[in-house]
C-alpha cells in the first residue's frame, strides 16, 4: 500500500476460525494477537490499534479519494468476532476539522507506537471487499525511520475491487518502490466471499508470502545492497481500505457499503 456514531446497518459476520493446516512454522510461538472477540458492536481495542489520520487535510497518497475517520463505527466496527473496515460514499465536511474535500470515508488502523516486531510469522485471516473502487491492504512499515521508502514496506496482501479475484504481495525499499517494487500475485477466486489466511514469514535473510499456507511468489532474499534490506529493524502493522487511486481505480458508489474488509484475527508469531 504505497504509502462516534451508531452503526445504522451493521454487517453481520459469521466467524470461521479454522487455521490453514500446518500454517505456523515449527518453533514459532504466538507473541501478539487480536481475535476481535467482543460483545455487541465496539470500536477496535485502543490498547492495540490507533487511527492513521495524518493526511486527511492535504489528501492521501496515490490519488486516493477517502477521508480516514477517527474512531467511527460506520467505518471500523468489531462485531460477531470480526473487525470490519467499510468504505462509504459520504462527506464529513460539517462534522470534522481536518476534512480535505473527500466524498468518501473509510478507516486506516495501525499498531504504530503500540506494537512492532523484527522478524516473525504474521497471519491475518480476512475476507476482502467486492466493491469496485476499493483497495484493501494488510501491510507493515518500518517504525524507526518515518521516511518512505527508506523505512521499508511489506505488503502482506493487496487487492482491488476491479480485480477482486487476485491478491498481491509486494516489497518496497530504496532499491525498488512503487511500480518498481518486488511484487507477485496469485488468483484467489473466493477472496471476497470466503475467509483466507494471508501470511508472511520474515527472517533475517528472507521474506516469504503465503495464502492459506501455500507460497505464491518468489522469496524476497536479502540482497547484497543494503538499500534493498531495511528489514533488520521493527515494523508495525496496518489495516485499511482505500478508495480509488492508482490501484483502486474507478469507483462504483452502489457497491461500497455493501462489503468491507472483514478481519477474523491478526496473529504474530516469533521464534521462542
From TrEMBL:
Pfam families in the cross-refs: Glyco_hydro_16
Keyword Hydrolase in annotation: yes
Keyword presence, Isomerase: no
Record-linked PROSITE patterns: GH16_2
Molecular function terms, GO-annotated: hydrolase activity, hydrolyzing O-glycosyl compounds
Domain GH16: 17-272
Keywords associated with the record: Hydrolase
GO biological process: carbohydrate metabolic process
InterPro entries on file: Beta-glucanase-like, ConA-like_dom_sf, Glycosyl_Hydrlase_16
Family: Belongs to the glycosyl hydrolase 16 family.
Name this protein carries in UniProt: Glycoside hydrolase
Gene source species: Rhodoferax lacus
Amino acid at each position: 500500500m504505497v504509502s462516534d456514531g451508531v452503526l445504522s446497518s451493521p454487517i453481520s459476520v459469521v466467524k470461521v476460525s479454522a487455521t490453514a493446516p500446518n500454517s505456523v512454522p515449527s518453533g514459532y510461538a504466538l507473541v501478539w494477537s487480536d481475535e476481535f472477540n467482543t460483545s455487541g458492536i465496539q470500536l477496535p481495542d485502543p490498547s492495540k490499534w490507533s487511527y492513521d489520520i495524518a493526511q486527511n487535510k492535504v489528501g492521501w497518497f496515490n490519488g486516493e479519494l477517502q477521508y480516514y475517520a477517527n474512531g467511527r463505527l460506520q467505518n471500523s466496527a468489531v462485531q460477531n468476532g470480526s473487525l470490519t473496515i467499510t468504505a462509504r460514499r459520504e462527506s464529513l465536511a460539517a462534522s470534522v476539522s481536518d476534512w480535505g474535500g473527500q466524498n468518501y470515508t473509510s478507516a486506516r488502523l495501525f499498531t504504530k507506537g503500540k506494537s512492532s516486531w523484527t522478524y516473525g510469522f504474521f497471519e491475518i485471516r480476512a475476507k476482502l471487499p467486492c466493491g469496485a473502487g476499493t483497495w484493501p491492504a494488510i501491510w507493515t512499515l518500518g517504525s524507526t525511520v518515518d521516511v518512505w521508502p527508506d523505512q521499508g514496506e511489506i505488503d502482506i496482501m493487496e487487492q482491488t475491487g476491479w480485480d477482486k479475484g487476485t491478491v498481491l504481495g509486494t516489497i518496497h525499499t530504496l532499491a525498488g518502490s512503487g511500480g518498481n517494487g518486488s511484487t507477485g500475485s496469485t488468483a484467489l477466486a473466493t477472496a471476497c466471499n470466503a475467509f483466507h489466511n494471508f501470511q508472511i514469514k520474515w527472517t533475517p535473510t528472507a521474506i516469504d508470502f503465503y495464502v492459506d499456507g501455500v507460497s505464491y511468489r518468489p522469496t524476497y532474499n536479502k540482497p547484497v545492497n543494503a538499500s534493498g534490506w531495511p528489514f533488520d529493524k521493527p515494523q508495525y502493522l496496518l489495516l485499511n481500505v482505500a478508495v480509488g487511486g492508482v490501484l483502486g481505480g474507478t469507483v462504483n458508489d452502489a457497491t461500497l457499503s455493501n462489503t468491507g474488509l472483514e478481519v477474523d484475527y491478526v496473529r504474530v508469531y516469533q521464534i521462542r
